[in-house]
Specification:
By secondary structure, this protein is of the alpha/beta class. Helices cover 38% and strands 16% of the residues. It has helices at residues 11-20, 25-37, 51-60, 120-124, 132-147, 168-179, 199-208, 222-228, 231-234, 237-251, 269-279, 304-315, 337-341, 343-346, 352-359, and strands spanning 67-73, 79-84, 90-97, 102-105, 109-111, 126-129, 155-158, 191-195, 212-216, 255-261, 284-290. Helix 1 (11-20) runs antiparallel to helix 2, helix 7 runs parallel beside helix 10 and helix 11 runs parallel beside helix 12. The two termini are 24 Å apart. The protein binds iron/sulfur cluster. Residues 112, 114-116, 119, 121-122, 161-163, 196, 335 line the site of iron/sulfur cluster.
Length: 370
């Protein structure tokens, strides 16, 4: 049987394991403290444990972390890490340094099933879900890098590779450990699960997690959104709005709407009007993200005038809509870009057509052989 990974258990789960071993609860608490508070993952350094216990946990628990395959730091302070998971696949995570915070963009899947038209990860197809420990490992490793600078991650966004709510238990479980007092103890306002619009999971999330919710909307008209994001065939805008209203009724939390602006596609006056109509009745702010053009995708960034007038239309209707220019352009920070450079390691066949054709029918994993 596989050994449990040291990041696959929170404090209560360590207590359960120690109970099975006939060991007292406070020993489990000590280990959980070493891992989550002191960022130690070498049993030898857990100095308040007996030698026998250090040996036992060394042999019974998997203490390995993914290896770093590629690490690129841009002049804007962003660092992109390409990790090789313990099961062998490549996973991206991006560290963004700001003046007063450090944000980590984590991946929740290897590849993605949802095949959004503007996304590199969507082009890679789906390989597998990351488990909870693999998602948390990204935070643990980012903190190890930042420790040398006297910093730690303050914000986590689930906006790397994959759709977190399609890997619901692992992603929500990881987010909950990140916020837990006996976990990484990040503020619930600083851990954000971002979804492309899985309506039933949005409704479920309302009671399952205190994390913040961001919705990648990108279009507020069904035909356009379906073209950009095939998931809209399965949950159209009416269904999505119903889910968001339910979420807000239960949580009373504001939602962040992410809106990538693509030239001549979704940011004209008509689309601004449609966005205002969609937001009506929701407590939401909009992040406008000018598209980050990159090879392999046919889309362009709109010009400044187009961005300004779209933003003004929203502002005139009291909808806050800051324009966010992606940090990390130098290090290819849009999701999937670094992994796409290593795409031959994932697979070689274009998967999008097949994934889109399956979007109506089923969410069953579309496995890609490695
Ligand atoms: S944008 Fe997100 S949900 Fe869409 S294909 Fe990319 S990773 Fe998947």
């Amino acid at each position: 049987m596989d050994k449990p990974h040291f990041l696959s258990m929170n404090r209560d789960e360590y207590r359960e394991l120690f109970k099975l071993w006939g060991l007292p609860k406070f020993r489990a608490d000590q280990i959980s403290q070493w891992i989550y508070k002191d960022a130690v993952h070498d049993p030898e350094q857990m100095t308040n444990l007996s030698k026998e216990l250090r040996q036992k946990i060394f042999s019974e628990i998997d203490w390995r972390l993914p290896s770093i395959v590629d690490q690129v730091t841009g002049q804007d302070g962003s660092t992109k890490l390409l990790l090789r998971s313990l099961k062998g696949q490549l996973v991206e995570t991006v560290l963004l340094r700001y003046e007063n915070r450090t944000s980590l963009c984590v991946s929740s899947q290897v590849g993605c099933k949802l095949a959004c038209d503007f996304c590199q990860t969507g082009k890679l197809g789906f390989v597998r879900h990351l488990d909870r420990a693999e998602i948390i490992s990204q935070l643990f490793m980012a903190n190890e890098i930042l420790r040398k600078e006297g910093l730690r991650v303050t914000h986590v966004v689930f906006m790397g590779m994959g759709e977190p709510l399609d890997n619901y238990n692992n992603a929500v479980g990881a987010a909950n450990v990140m916020m837990a007092e006996d976990g990484f103890f990040l503020s619930a306002r600083h851990v954000t699960l971002s979804t492309s619009g899985l309506a039933p999971e949005i409704e479920k999330l309302a009671t399952d997690s205190r994390a913040a919710l961001a919705l990648s909307l990108h279009a507020s008209r069904d035909d356009l959104r379906t073209k950009l994001m095939p998931i809209n065939r399965r949950y159209n805008l009416e269904r999505l709005k119903q889910a968001l209203l339910h979420y807000q009724k239960v949580t009373d939390k504001k939602i962040t709407i992410e809106y990538i602006m693509i030239k001549d596609t979704n940011c004209g006056p008509q689309e601004a009007k449609e966005l205002v109509k969609f937001i009506h009745g929701l407590k939401a702010k909009v992040n406008l993200i000018p598209f980050n053009a990159h090879p392999g995708l046919p889309f362009q960034r709109p010009d400044d005038e187009e961005i300004r007038s779209f933003q003004k239309y929203l502002a005139d209707r009291s909808i806050p809509a800051p324009v966010r220019y992606s940090k990390g352009l130098e290090v290819s920070a849009a999701c999937g870009q670094l992994a796409a450079k290593h795409a031959e390691e994932l697979h070689s066949k274009p998967e999008r057509k097949r994934l889109v054709s399956q979007m109506d029918a089923s969410f069953a994993p579309v496995e890609v052989s490695l």
